[in-house]
Amino acid sequence: MTTVTTPAAATSLRRLYFTRFAFALIWAALLATTASTVGPVSVALLVLYPAFDAVAAVIDARSSKDKGPTLSLYANIAVSSLTAIGLAVAASSGIPAVLRVWGAWAIVSGLTQLAVGIIRRHLDGHWPMILSGGISTLAGTTFILQAAQEGASLVNLAGYATIGGLFFLASALRLGRAARKH
Fold it and tell me: How far is CA 29 from the centre of its chain?
């Protein structure tokens, strides 16, 4: 089982989580302004989010390489990269297709986030990640169901990103508190 216990790794993760929080809030605000249609700006934003997630997972894996990154992080890198491509393709079919791809990604990435959180549960900052992974899995199912409804919108994706960002903020704050204890 892989764990991240060094102070340097915890500091790196904390910084990454603060960055992910800020990115999620900015991204959500931008998507909310374009959520009614699938246009060039919303497509760019849709592709950017999982691409950013993949890059963040690479940074996470590098920060924990002294203990060896988890297989779940590698899976997240692959799934998020494929999702960015899938969203670019799905955007040409409209909002329901985007919601289906996003929903599938939320389920899979939620499960991988849950796995990473469980593996790192001994670190104070990862309990919010466990909760976030579970919520992401449920939200993904909701997005897939919403795709079948009349008048589907991308606005719920902005809410999803905001909630995810808040969980990253909670983890960053808890990691900082844990570092001060040691």
Answer: 16
